[in-house]
Amino acid sequence: MRKLKLQVQISLDGYIAGPNGEMDWMVWDWDEALNNYVKQITDPVDCIILGRKLAEEFIPYWANIATKPDDPDYIPGKMITRTPKVVFTKTLNESKWENTILAKGDLVKEITKLKMQEGKDIIAYGGATFASALIKEKLLDEFYLLLDPSAIGNGLPIFKEIDGKQNYSLIESTSFDCGIVILRYKQKEVIL
Known about the structure:
Blueprint: E1 4-10, E2 15-17, H1 32-42, E3 45-51, H2 52-65, H3 74-82, E4 85-88, E5 100-103, H4 107-116, E6 121-124, H5 128-136, E7 142-147, E8 156-157, E9 168-175, E10 181-187
Parallel strand pairs: 1-6, 1-7, 3-4, 3-6, 4-5
Antiparallel strand pairs: 2-8, 7-10, 9-10
Helix pairs in contact: 2-3
């Protein structure tokens, strides 16, 4: 079965964006070590999943970067653009993006179907609502929380939809010179 990973930058106080989607607090001057770490997360990925709201900015942004060989993000842009994507939506009837299909059915059934297919890992890049739904339904196999050295006081959390306590096991934590700490977790197995 394929592994589903969530990679998301998060503030010290637990938000992935400001109340209106602001991301100006995020650290983007990543050093080579952090870039290499993220490359290790994404190398075994052959499918990206996104919620519709994030997809509407994410996909065109990276497609544009992939046309600019002089841009420092050209290589990740090419990787993201050529990787097949699945956008989860209730409102779109057809994909407006290249190399992207829509998933319109039940979230648990759609994710289970994706995980059962042949292939490498699947990565989710969030959107607060979409990430919250994945967490609530316990669909994620690993979390890569890129903890930024910022507190924003209010914003969009990703753990707001859980119905009760969820326990996680820390797999590793790695700090980088830019101030980001990557916390890698998996769902804690319940032993009866």
